[in-house]
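Mods, move this if it's the wrong board.
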Amino acid sequence: MSQRSGVPGGLAAGSRIALLYDELLGETPDLLDGEVQRQAIAQALIELGHEPIPIPCDLDLAAARERLRQCEPALVFNLVESLGGSDRLMPLATLLLESLGLPYTGCPTAAIVATNDKPASKRRMRELGLPTPACRRLSGREAKSFALEAMRFPAEMIIKSVAEHASVGLDDASVVTVDSEAELAALLDERSRSAGRELFAETYVRGREFNLSLLDGRALPPAEIVFENYPEGKPRIVGYAAKWVEASPEYDGTPRTFEFSSDDGPLLERLCRIAEACWDGFGLAGAARVDFRTDETGEPWILEVNANPCLNPDGGFAAACGQAGIGYVDMIGAIVAAGVRPGE
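Not the wrong board. Structure tokens:
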């Protein structure tokens, strides 16, 4: 793993580590998952010999600031994924930590901002020479540049949230076929209004789905999401039900595998190199994940860069670490050791 100047990897035993987390605004499976994650990390920190201190964070940043000052942590383990129910506000947590001069785990503010707006992150991927599907959005500075992308109609597209994560709102109806730019714009407008958040459209890539986890810049073993027992015509996507609704056929029908044939070797190596290029190009730190699809020719396309992946013991990131021989407690220890300092 890479070494960085100023990394608090040598925290003394018994160091106080603040667990900064966003307070739940509901009881949906994706939100409740955050509580499971926090408890697991707290236990891992105890096993590492540290003292975890849970500190809630919401839109009252002054209150969170005072809690952090009273805690006087040696490090903050940043678990904030949204504020006030909006993933767009995620960077406010790291900005707060930087204003206090506190070292923290995970990606710095610049990386969170660069990856949080998905269409904007695709623009950065194109600048880096990395493959990502063409997309459309109705607003934002990127709209004109993406309008220049060649697209043939009719086009099969997938409608996604610009800034919300965890596959919120993603289901079979998200995959659509449109006959023109005008029809696509009207559909985006209608669905954005209905959802109450900005949506964008991305070229739907039919093929295999992979994710590549990175721990302190090291590419972990690639995982493939296998679509089992999907009827003909059903979109093969990892939607909200596949991720969170345990009683759904999508949840049971999308197992993760790390088993590949020797023929997949060159593709897996390429996925690792592309993911590492994303790590460097977006200035990621600590832990991150890059999601891919491959097309009918086997070419990989980046779907998104996740600067704040799930760290649950039964999640994909921990599973990839396990494949690399890194246990859960050691994984948390590595993330702590890679903690960033403000301004790095």
